[in-house]
Amino acid sequence: MLTSIIILTYNNLDYTKKCIESIRKNTKKGEYEIVIVDNCSSDGTREWLEKQNDMVLILNEENMGFPKGCNQGIEASSGDNILLLNNDVIVTHNWLDNMIKCLYSSKDIGAVGPVSNSVSYYQQITTSYSNLKELEEFAKEYNVSDSSKWENRLKLVGFCMLIKKKVLDKVGLLDEIFTPGNFEDDDLSLRIVSAGYKLVLCNDTFIHHYGSKSFNKNRDKYIELMMKNEKKINDKLGVPIVHVINIRKDITSLIDEDKEKEFNVLQLECGGCGTLMDIKNRYSNCRIFGTEVHEKALVNRSLDVNIDIGDIENTCFNYELGMFDYIIGADLGYGIRELIDIVGKFKRYLKQNGKFIVTLGKNTENVKNILNMLFVDFNREKINGYVSHNQYIFVLQRKELDENIDSIESNIEIDKNIQKIINDIKSDDKELNSRLEYIYKYSYKGADILNSIGVKMFEEGLIDFVIPVFQTVLKFEPANKDAVLNLVVILSKFKQYELALKYIDKLYITDDEIYAVRKDILEQARNAGVLQQKSDIPLISICIPTYNRADNLKKCLNSIFRQIKTWMNIEVVIVNNDSPDNTEEVVMSFKNKYDNIVYIKNETNIGGDKNILYVPTYANGQFVFLHGDDDYFMDGSLVNVYNFVKDNTDNSFIFFQVTKNDKSVKNVTSVDEFVAKVTGTSSAFMSSIMMKKCFYDKLKDKEKFIDSGLNQIYVLLSILECYPKACVINYSLFYYENNLSGGYNWPKVFIENYLNLLQYFKDENVLSERIYNFEKERVLKQSAIDWLGVFKENNRMKEFHMDTLKHYVDKYYKNEEYYKESYELIDSIMRDKIN
């Protein structure tokens, strides 16, 4: 694998010499090329460069600037990777090896960068050396590859940035509107993450940086250029760059939890999620959420974060009460009055021991007064310890907020005057809804007070007013448990059972009380003859075959039950294939909380493929949704799946093409259509398959291809043969653990076994010759070559027996006209000769 090191020079010959010498000394020969672009130096740099014989040299007759010069170097390069490197650096021991290891640790990493002694954007570390010898010793000790020190970022500083060439081919070169320089690295970074790739800071790799020797010579012009280019990138993004890439490490340092703990964090006006990403880097099991006004700020497509669009003052956010361990409100730009309103609005979403981290400008008037209001034990010394970014930072405990903020500057003491409010409504019920909304908005316990008013009205028999009271709460807080339960109890007393069930089914929470209320309403409805017993039959059975992945299974079940609502229309069927770990303990912890779990443990391990076929036999639902124990449903996805299935129950199966996400639906009425729309390596993905149970049960020979590794494709095509109506939906339902099972022969499975399977359906006159030939070619040209690249990037060629690929290509494709071209391409990938 070849890395092209692109270096721009403009005078500063001494620095250039030191940089080149350090590359030669600390980088393995044969694994790099140096491409120098000189921007018309006048200090002897050009003459020295012309004497070097180990580099590609481009000599510009005028100063083309940094972006244009880099692009010239990239276009003249021949490497698999592009490394943009300033000439005022000294590279060190293991520098490139460490970064290459990180870059190719995952196919979704697009670029990486090191830390240094002099660099912005939190890439700088404290050093202890004072000369070059000490630098070498420091770097040798520091540069030990350690994946636990890798950190996802929104931006990498361009003084040293290693990028996969194929990523540059996709996102484009540096934007030359930023000539002569500054913000081109911000722009490139954001284009990379917008394309779905990750940027990673290698905290295990250090190089020395002398620091901006060219720009520092004329400070005033440098500042003017910075301001001009900042405006350019702001215009290009449609939102200020500082809002997009901002990281508040002073804020995230106030989060102190066990590294393995699962907890929830919400950031108000989160920008590009840099701060949330920093939290996720430190706490991999936390769940991160954000609100943001500017949708254009959300450039990062690789971060698993739940974002709601809207301004925090006027938008209703549908979070569960007591959902968050931390809520962050930093750089909100509001005054004291607005800040109190915001804290009052969002504190209800904190857990009882949760914390609200907020900032207030140091120049704000009456700071001490506001702090006295917000803190029970406020003292000046405490706040002095939290001064940062010219702001006061303070951490508000939920219990302190409950004790204090509810009484701040209240114009009306609603909670002390509930009976007076009820009497006023009785005497004059004009504009009732507006009055109720006013109570909610201008009381810091608006939902609690309205719930109290509703209960009191019900006790007094004021039935006409009761339902609007609870509906007002639900208008602003759709998941308010108390309002829902109050409302459904009242509706059930008036025998409005179906309406009561609709309200309770809107809750996104599941607990014993809600289940008990729902069961009681169902029983009342059946006794009244309103509902039939069939309402208990699940629409969907999520069927999970599992083996020895207890931790993955726990995350999988959490992803299901936090959104499955309180319905009995979805059940979860788990078949444990005699796991030796604590899988059963994990399942029972969920089964003790939820009624809609069916659990079976096999006496012996019957094999993964057989267990996949075995688990649906225990399903009670109309549709069987096969699901991997290390695949996790994205929040909200199950509601969409449920609604789609409910409206399309006449399909024999539904296949979710999760590599695409345009939500399009493609109907298929034959095996030909399905094979043409979904290639074999995709249709083998178990978690994409939902089959109608009655059709699955009728298949007589479900194990016909059980030893092929592709038996689930056989089942799908057999169902479609008998019941020719199905659909394919482009919908990214999951995020993945990336537990790619190894130890099998990929070429044998996806060439020999798959072509044999297709041949079977062709011989049965179910698959046409034309589609067979089309899919045969596609499997080779797309699937085989794509996966070959993936395995090569991840150093897993041997694990998947990819050395046998040429054998199977010879065996099945020798007589095809595209054989030679495909064979040569595969051979070149294996020999590392293409980008």
TrEMBL record:
Residue ranges constituting the Glycosyltransferase 2-like domain according to the UniProt record: 4-171, 541-667
Name of the protein in question: Glycosyltransferase
Entry keyword annotation includes Transferase: yes
Enzyme Commission no: 2.4.-.-
Record's keyword terms, sorted: Glycosyltransferase, Transferase
InterPro entries: Glyco_trans_2-like (IPR001173), Nucleotide-diphossugar_trans (IPR029044), SAM-dependent_MTases_sf (IPR029063), TPR-like_helical_dom_sf (IPR011990)
Any GO molecular function: glycosyltransferase activity
Pfam families reported for this sequence: Glycos_transf_2 (PF00535)
Enzyme class: transferase
Family named by the database record: Belongs to the glycosyltransferase 2 family.
Domain of life: Bacteria
Annotated pathway: Cell wall biogenesis; cell wall polysaccharide biosynthesis
Keyword Transferase: yes
CDD domains the UniProt entry points to: Glyco_tranf_GTA_type, GT_2_like_c
